[in-house]
Amino acid sequence: MEKEDIRDIILDTMVVSLKAQLRALKRMRSSAEEEEPREKSMSQIDIAFNILSAAGTPLHVSQIIAEAEKSYGVKLERESLVSALSKKVMKEDRFVRTGKNMFALKGR
């Protein structure tokens, strides 16, 4: 094989490789443009806050869970919600406990 043949083989290989890379980059760009940005999901605390705010009165955790499923299509874990709300109550952050598993918004 002569030098020119080897050079042509190397150049052809590089052309094929670069074309493949360009196709891959174009696919990546088009798929990135097509993807819609995801909405940030609400935390269970934010959901509970919205529900208690709309209710205007203290609610039992069971009522909060039922309303979350009805209004937001989210099934909240009872123990997790009680724990999260209790931590907020202890920090005196937005929520108060009005009875056993009963919560309200602070100052309302």
List descriptors:
108 residues; three-stranded antiparallel β-sheet; 2 domains; mainly alpha; single chain; Arc Repressor Mutant, subunit A
Question: Can you offer a commentary on this structure?
Answer:
- By secondary structure, the chain is mainly alpha-helical.
- The chain has 2 domains: 1-37; 44-105, Orthogonal Bundle (Arc Repressor Mutant, subunit A), CATH 1.10.10.
- Helix content is 64%, strand content 10%.
- It has helices at 3-34, 44-55, 61-72, 78-90; strands at 59-60, 95-99, 102-105.
- A 3-stranded antiparallel β-sheet has the order 1-3-2.
- Helix 2 (44-55) packs across helix 3 (61-72).
- The N and C termini lie far apart (89 Å).
- The model has no long low-confidence stretch (mean pLDDT 89).
CATH fold assignment of the largest domain: Arc Repressor Mutant, subunit A
Q: Architecture of the largest domain, according to CATH?
A: Orthogonal Bundle
Q: In sequence order, what are the helices and strands, one letter per element?
A: HHEHHEE
What's the total helix number?
4
Uncertain segments of ≥5 residues (pLDDT<50)? none
Strand content: 5-15%
- The total beta strand count reads 3
Structural domain tally: 2
The rough form would be described as rod-shaped
CATH class descriptor of the largest domain: Mainly Alpha
Strand order of the largest sheet: 1-3-2
* Helical content band: 55-70%
Query: What kind of sheet is the major sheet?
Result: 3 strands, antiparallel
- Secondary-structure-based class equals mainly alpha
Q: What value does the Rg take, in angstroms?
A: 29 Å
